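Let's practice the habit of predicting before peeking. Look at the sequence and jot down your guess about where helices and strands might fall. Then scroll down.
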Amino acid sequence: MTINGFDQIFPLGEKNDAYAQYFVGQSYLAPLASGSVPVSNVSFEPGCRNNWHIHHGTGGGGDQILLCTAGSGWYRAEGADPVGMNPGTVIRVPAGTKHWHGAKADSWFSHVAFITPGEDVSNEWLEPVTDEEYGQLPKNGANA
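Done guessing? Here is the structure:
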């Protein structure tokens, strides 16, 4: 699918209005599979990112898997350096990890996301990633 010169293999989906309160900027959501492991394509306009959040779960559940399929984005776990995401990047976010992800300032970004099934799986939305914090991300180098 192409939008504004942004090519991706999965549908863009609809504006992610149901979760808009947890994003800075515009995101889009395209459910790809339902069932015991729902899978969605999430697309972010340039500069869009979700709030800090934590996925909870026990019994092996609650890990989030992010598979970058198009564009360029960021993943950051609390207390860790930001990780640049480009097509082919795979991130496993262990349950209980405070983190956020989103597009780089100058690029659209899409990832396929799902949560590993288990017991007591839930999501806790936290504070937004501020413009100041986002503005401090690397502009060049290996992690830019």
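How did you do? The longest helix spans residues 131-135.
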